[in-house]
């Protein structure tokens, strides 16, 4: 039997996630949105692309949650971007409502699904979905670390010209300006980045990585990044469906790891058939610990704000 992945929100990230999933022939895909006709049109278009590349994933576009039943994975991308005049709290309230509805609409008919959350602020949205569905922590994970690490790798590649296949970057922490690019653990073909690049160049790359999302928003003007966030979701889905035990940075529910509790936070996780099977703890020096703590405080503040705004 084929696997089923439902993607909630068929906008830029949702439809691009469906594209990467179909290209890998990972599962049948259900694309859902509130806009009438849009998911149907995108699904049809994607279905018509697949004969060209010889892939047999079935892609269904719909406005009804019926088609999601029995999903192995549910990827939530539905949300609204921040608009002029909208406060962060306004955005938080609106996206929390959307993520809550998407979770409630899927949790009973897909009782074994693993949830991947992309809607921002994703650490907080993952927390919300876990509470709404009362999921064990294995079954819910937020996407951010693969994206942030890939951004850093791309900038290192631009600076050095070395193949991206040789570049290994690790970015932990919340998905925000306080994220923590671990330059001590990152390397090029085993050579520590700190030896490969002068300190000023490395610092510039770290700063650009932290602001990577904003740089793209400023260029696009009408939206935010979608290719890289979407392919990161597809990689996570693949690791789960193929039980790869892949270690990637992702947002997971903390139960004391890295000294953190009762919050989602970007840490290295082992992704396999059961979802988040384990959290890997790196040995960190004092400055790395302090940077993670600062990032954790920022995430905690957003999650607390959500808990004040949303009634369970
Ligand atoms: N149910 C289903 N879909 C919804 C709902 C809902 N309740 N509310 C909004 N949507 C849909 C919108 O109709 C839109 O098509 O979510 C889609 C969001 O798509 P885009 O506006 O293109 O936004 P996108 O770039 O995909 O980003 C979505 O992911 O990366 C994050 O920060 C980003 O939080 C944002 C989310």
Map the helices and strands:
Elements: E1 4-8, H1 12-23, E2 28-32, H2 38-53, E3 59-62, E4 73-76, H3 88-107, E5 114-117, H4 122-133, E6 140-142, H5 145-160, E7 167-168, E8 171-172, E9 180-181, E10 187-188, E11 191-192, H6 193-196, H7 199-210, H8 212-220, H9 227-241, E12 246-255, E13 261-272, E14 275-279, H10 286-309
Parallel strand pairs: 1-2, 1-4, 2-3, 4-5, 5-6
Antiparallel strand pairs: 7-10, 8-9, 10-11, 12-13, 13-14
This protein binds adenosine-5-diphosphoribose.
Adenosine-5-diphosphoribose (APR) binds near residues 10, 79, 120 and 229.
* CATH level 1 class label of the largest domain: Alpha Beta
The total tally of domains equals 2
Question: How are the strands ordered across the major sheet?
Answer: 3-2-1-4-5-6
Mean pLDDT: 96
Q: What share of the residues does DSSP label as strand, in percent? A: 15-25%
Low-confidence region ranges: none
What's the N-to-C terminus distance? 37 Å
Name of the CATH superfamily of the largest domain:
Lactate dehydrogenase/glycoside hydrolase, family 4, C-terminal
CATH architecture of the largest domain: Alpha-Beta Complex
How many beta-strand elements? 14
Structural class call reads alpha/beta
H/E topology pattern? EHEHEEHEHEHEEEEEHHHHEEEH
CATH topology of the largest domain: L-2-Hydroxyisocaproate Dehydrogenase, Chain A, domain 2
The biggest beta sheet, please? 6 strands, parallel
Number of H- or I-type helical stretches: 10
**Helix coverage percent:** 40-55%
Molecules bound to protein: adenosine-5-diphosphoribose
How much is the radius of gyration in Å?
19 Å
Shape: globular
């Amino acid at each position: 039997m084929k696997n089923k992945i439902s993607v909630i929100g068929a906008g830029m990230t949702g439809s691009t996630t469906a594209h990467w999933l179909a290209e890998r022939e990972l599962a049948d895909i259900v694309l859902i949105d509130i806009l009438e006709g849009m998911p149907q049109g995108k699904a049809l278009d994607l279905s018509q692309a697949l004969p060209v590349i010889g892939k047999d994933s079935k892609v269904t576009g719909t406005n009804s949650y019926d088609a999601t039943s029995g999903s192995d994975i549910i990827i939530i991308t539905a949300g609204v971007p921040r608009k002029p005049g909208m406060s962060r709290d306004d955005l938080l309230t609106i996206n929390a409502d959307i993520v809550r509805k998407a979770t409630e609409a899927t949790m009973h008919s897909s009782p074994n699904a693993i949830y991947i959350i992309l809607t921002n602020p994703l650490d907080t949205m993952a927390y919300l979905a876990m509470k709404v569905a009362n999921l064990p922590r294995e079954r819910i994970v937020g996407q951010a670390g693969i994206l942030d690490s890939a951004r850093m790798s791309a900038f290192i590649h631009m600076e050095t010209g070395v193949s991206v296949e040789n570049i290994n970057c690790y970015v932990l922490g919340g998905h925000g300006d306080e994220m923590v690019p671990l330059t001590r653990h990152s390397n090029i073909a085993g050579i520590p980045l700190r030896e490969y690049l002068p300190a000023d160049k490395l610092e510039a790359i770290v700063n650009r990585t932290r602001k990577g999302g904003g740089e793209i928003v400023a260029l696009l003007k009408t939206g935010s990044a979608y290719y890289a966030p979407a392919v990161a979701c597809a990689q996570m889905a693949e690791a789960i469906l193929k039980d790869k035990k892949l270690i990637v940075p992702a947002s997971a529910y903390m139960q004391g790891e890295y000294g953190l509790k009762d919050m989602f936070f970007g840490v290295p996780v082992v992704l396999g058939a059961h979802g988040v099977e384990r959290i890997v703890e790196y040995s960190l020096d004092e400055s790395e610990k302090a940077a993670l703590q600062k990032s954790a405080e920022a995430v905690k503040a957003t999650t607390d704000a959500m808990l004040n705004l949303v009634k369970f």
